[in-house]
User: Which sequence fits this backbone?
């Protein structure tokens, strides 16, 4: 810019000043989203068409909850609770040109858990014991596996398992059963019960 001043005697003075205009990008972290418990969320900055993203630094916080905290497009680590992510966009050449936006990632669901119990932990010959695996929470359809003394029991894929005389090889022996429950996100829980 040039300023020119003239007095009544036509004396003229001029001076020049330069103003540099740097690119400004209004940070846009996108819409809030909802994910399932212990899964990842897409975390990305929305950059309008025609804007040169190379002129800007991108920073996501909290840093420890994203794969690459300085990327335009990244993802969160597996989340077990809702989290607010903040995107800060700063011009590389003039850090006063900076803006921030937030993205809330809501987490639905709860961790898979299980309670394992037996209706009778000591049985006589010709008697049975019913083992119950009560799964709590998790996501979607659950699958069950039962193990007897570390060996997978073929066909035992329900939430209950009946152990009885036909299965007994020796009297006065402890049989250790493990129930394994898996949800559709491949979260796995196990628990152990002993029958004598």
Assistant:
């Amino acid at each position: 810019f040039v300023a020119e001043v003239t007095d009544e005697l036509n004396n003229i003075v001029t001076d020049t000043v330069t103003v540099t205009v740097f690119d400004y990008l209004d940070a846009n972290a996108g819409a809030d989203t909802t994910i399932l418990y212990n899964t990842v969320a897409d975390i990305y900055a929305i950059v309008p068409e025609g804007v040169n993203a190379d002129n800007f630094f991108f920073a996501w916080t909290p840093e420890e909850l994203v794969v690459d905290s300085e990327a335009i497009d990244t993802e969160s680590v597996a989340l077990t609770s809702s989290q607010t992510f903040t995107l800060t966009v700063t011009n590389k050449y003039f850090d006063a040109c900076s803006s921030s936006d937030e993205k809330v990632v809501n987490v639905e669901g709860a961790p898979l858990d299980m309670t394992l119990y037996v209706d009778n932990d000591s049985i006589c010959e010709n008697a049975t014991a019913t083992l119950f695996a009560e799964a709590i929470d998790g996501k979607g359809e659950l699958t069950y596996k039962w193990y007897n003394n570390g060996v997978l029991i073929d066909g035992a894929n329900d939430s209950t398992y009946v152990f009885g005389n036909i299965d007994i090889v020796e009297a006065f022996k402890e049989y250790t059963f493990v129930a394994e429950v898996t949800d559709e996100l491949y979260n796995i829980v196990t628990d152990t019960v002993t029958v004598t």
Notes: The radius of gyration is 32 Å.
